[in-house]
Each structure stands twice: as C-alpha cells, then as structure tokens.
Specification:
Distance between the termini of chain A: 20 Å
Oligomer: heterodimer
Helix content of chain B: over 70%
Number of helices of chain B: 13
Radius of gyration of chain A: 19 Å
Order of helices and strands of chain A: HHHHHHEEHHHHHHH
Largest sheet of chain A: 2 strands, antiparallel
Largest sheet of chain B: 2 strands, antiparallel
Strand content of chain B: under 5%
Shape of chain B: globular
Strand order of the largest sheet of chain A: 1-2
Largest interface: A-B, 44 and 43 residues
Radius of gyration of chain B: 19 Å
Helix content of chain A: over 70%
CATH class of chain B: Mainly Alpha
Structural class of chain A: mainly alpha
Order of helices and strands of chain B: HHHHHEHEEHHHHEHHH
Structural class of chain B: mainly alpha
Number of strands of chain A: 2
Number of strands of chain B: 4
Chain lengths: ~300, ~325
Amino acid sequence: MSAASLAARTPGAAFMLGVLAVGFAAATPGFASLPNLVNVLLQSSVLLLIALPMTLVIMTEGLDLSVGAVLTLASVVLALVATASGSVTLAILAGLAVGFSCGAVNGWLVAGLDLPPFVATLGTLGMVQGVALAASGGQSVVGLPPTLLVWYGGHVAMLPLPIVIVALAYTAMHVLLYRTSFGSHVFALGGNREALAFAGIRYRGTLAAVYALNGLMAGFAAILFTARLDAGHPTAGIGTEFDAIAAVAVGGTSFERGNGWLPGTVLGVLTIGVLRNGLNLLAVPSSLHVACIGVLVILAFVIEGAKGTAP
Amino acid sequence: MSRALAQLLARVLAVLALCAVLALLSDVFLTRGNIVNVLRQTSLLFFLASGLTLVVLTAGLDLSVGANISLAACVAGTAMKATGEPLLGAALGLGIGAAVGLCNGLMVALLRIPSFIATYGMLWVLQGAAYAYMAGQPVYGFPRAFRLIGVGTVGGIPVPILLMAAVLALGSVFTARTIWGQQIYAIGANATAARLSGVPVKRRLILVYLLSGATTGLAALIFLARLNSAEADIGGELTLPAIAAVLIGGASLFGGVGSLFGTFIGALLLTLVLNGMNLLEVDARWQPFVTGAIILAAVWIDMRTGRMFAARAEKGG
C-alpha cells in the first residue's frame, strides 16, 4: 500500500480512536492505566473475532445482520452441550458446528438463491433468534465446567489468552485476505464481480465461503463469549452485529465499492472498545453506549462520503 | 394478465386458503371476537408497514421503525401521564415519529448514506435514547379520551380498523393517482432516469422517509392506547414483522414495484399466521423464527416469479 493511500485512510479510523483516547484520558483518571487498557483489549476480543470476517462480508458488498443471533445460538448450544455432557471439547465442536451451519445457510441464500444479503440475513436473524430462545427455554444456561472459563480468564506466558487468540486470528485472516487467491477473489467480488465471471472464476463458491467463514468465526467467538459470561444466555449476543458493522465502517471499509482494509477494522474495534470503556468509566448509562456508537457510524459515513467526493 | 395483478390475486387466494385451514383447525377462529382481534392487530402492523412500503418503493429500507415506536410511545406516554393532556401526547408521538423520519431522509438523500445503514444506526440511537429516558421503569394508565383511539368503536367498528381503512384509501390515492406518488415509483425504478426527467429526487426521498416516520408515530399512538402502558423495548420486536408484511405484499426491494393494498394483504397474511399459531397453542418463542422464514420465502418467491415473468417476456409470451 502506498503512503498516500495509507494517509487517505488513516484519518477516519485512527483519528476517532486518538480523539476518544485523549478525551477519556483527560476526563477520567482511571482510563489511561495499564490494567484498564488491558481490560479494553480483553473486552474487544469477542468483537474483533466477529468484525474481522464481517470485513470480508462487507467487502463483497454484502452484510450479515444475523451474526449476533448466531453468536447467541452458538453460545447457548455450547453451554447446553457442556452442562449436559461435561465435555468442553464436545461443547466447543457443537458451538463451531452451529456457527458454521448458520453461516453456510446465509451463504446459500446469498450466493445460491441470489437473495439480497441484508434481507437474507434479516430473515435468518429472526429464525436463529427463535431457535436460541426455544432451545434455552428463554433461560440462561448456567453451571458450566470450570475448564471452559480458562478460554477467557487464562494466560499464556503472562499474556491473557483472549489476546493471544485474537492475534492469531488476525494473522490468519490477514494472510487469507492479502496472500491467497481466495483473498483476491474477495476483493474482486466487491469491486468488479463481472471481471471474475469473465475470467471464468466461479465466484458463487467464494461468496458462500465468506458467509460460512463469518458464521464459523461467530461460533469461535462464542467460546470466549460464553466463558466471559460463565453462561449461555438466549439474548446476550443480540446487537453484536451492530458493533461489528460499526467497527468495519469506522475502520474505513467501503460499503459500496468493496474497498476493504483489515487493519482498519482492528482500529475500528478498538475505537468502539475505548468508547464503551470510557463511557462506562464516566458512568454513562449503558443504554446510551449504543446511541453513541450509532452516532459514530454516521460520522464514519460522513467522513467516507467527504473522501468519496473529494478530487 | 399483468404480473402485478396475478401476484396480488395469488396473495388474496393465500389469505383465503389460510382462513379456511384455520377455520377447520380451530373453533375459535371464525368468532367475531377473533376476527376483530386479527384486524386490530393487522392495523398496527399496517400503519408501520405503509410508510415502509413507500421507502421500499424507492429501493430503500427503514430498519428504525420498531425503535422509533419505542421512543415515540415512551415520550408520548410519560408526557400524558405527567400532564393528563391527550392532545399533547398525540402531538409528541406523531412529532417524534416524523422528526426521526426526517433525520433518516436527510441522511439518505443529502449525506447519501445507504438507507439500511443510516436507519440501522438510527435504530440503535433511538433504542438507546428510549432506554435512557425510561431508566427501566414502565409508564401506564393514560387519559380515557386518548385510549379511545386504541379501544374505542364508531358504529360498532373499532377505531384502529377505521383508521387503517382511511390510511389505506388515502395512501392508495396518493401513490397511484398523484404526481408525487408516481415520482416515488419512478425513483425506485430508475433513480438516474427520474432525476434526468426532472423529478426532485432528494426532496421526494426526504418526503418518503418523513411519511414512514409519521405513520410509525401513528402506530406508536395506537399501540400505546391499546396496551395502556409503555416500556423502553415496546417496539423492538415489530421491525421484522413490518418488513415481512411489505415483502409478502409483493413490494420489491429493488424498488419501483409494490402497492399499499399489497402491503395490507401482507400484513393480514402475517397476522393470520401468528394468530393461527396462538390459537393452535404454538410456543410464542417460535414467532421470530416463523417471521424470519416467511421473509425469506416471500423474497425468494418474488425473485422466482419475477424471473419467470421476465423469461416469458423475453420469449414474447
């Protein structure tokens, strides 16, 4: 990437993060402490796992509104299997399977049946949410084996385990997007789908795979999510898709030209993590956090629009 | 037969078939109480879906309608509780609904934010505002005069059903028989062509979102009057059914195709399904599942029949 395009992209994401961080550091003494910053990273881990593959989905000019519901269902199933069988491995596999299946269904609806992505995933949102409510009976699933909690609370060589996991996940996603032909196809799906067809590349499989990957990663995020809550809760993940979409938007990925930028999504996730953390420290009611993130998204689009119309 | 008419006829037949099945399965279905109940529930969904239909006609989407209901109902409810003034409550409910719609319209038309993103951001702004405003407390017990718009009757017919008939009639004339209505169809069919033909695209788009907000405000008032209570998440679950009603009604997400009568049939069909589930004692937790599945089926059928007709037209058949 050239320095010019880096400079053109950096302001939106890094600028917001910088302003928020400086503002919160000035406003509350607790913000700029090491334990709190580690806490921001920890709390951002689940969102990053969701937002990374969401970047790819949005790069294909798509959207996945169902991912919060998929995270919820995977978490509920994981918790149900863990409490019923006592086997953490089996539970994790079940959660991953749920995530992957939901993602594959979305991929089939979008790539196979040609349904508009936001309606297809709005439909699956309702369906997956319904299954999560019915499977849990509307109640939290509690009494998880302690070995599951290590996924969120454990450490590897002094580093918190979730931070190690998201670092690995980012590396894998970066290589996938920037170093493989799959990644090139994802770029082309958003910017120039016809060129793919003319080149004789069967893009439908790639498109379906992007949604399946998104679901699989939601299943993966459900492990950390469930360990953090110490429960499978039938509505806890609702709205996560909004944070993820917001993070991608703030990170400078275009919703119309498929012009994605994975490092920007990391900045976007951190921006939202810092925003929520800072608002918490300032004792702003949590209900207003989403309102602030909504404003942030609209700001990101205004910035994006200003860049788009600039010469 | 034209494609639109054939599809509308198919939907009316589906409603009749569904009624026949429900009448066979349940003794209660054909009672006057249940029919009035179905129509009353349809009216709420229709108010929400009518403005949304206009938005969809322009190839847009308004995901904020449910959260808009929450905020409008909560503010109107608390104001009436505090002052006892039904008119103040009605003005606030309609005003907030319309103001939110105006903001959506400005974001879409002037800032050129994709509509589903702009209204999705708005959804969370409104939901957050409603939660913060109510601070976890419900509000209930509104003036009797206000409650009449939800539970009153005129000549034996419930007020919401009369209002639904009025909105349907006025809205149909507006969309089908006025220049502004035709311009809305033109924007959805081809925005560039519409602009080049002299249609003031930005102003019509703002109007469409404003109307969607206003009908949402109306829905909030009727919901409030019927339930006689409000809490912060009162409207959250209504967005999905409203979108479903529009799509079942035959409006195309690609714009330019659809009608208010179709949306009425869509709202009726969805209400019948949910009513049937209630009568047959299906767990209410499955309702979002069924609504989601119906959305997918409706869009899929719409695309299939669209292709069928397009293919037939190509062959000259």
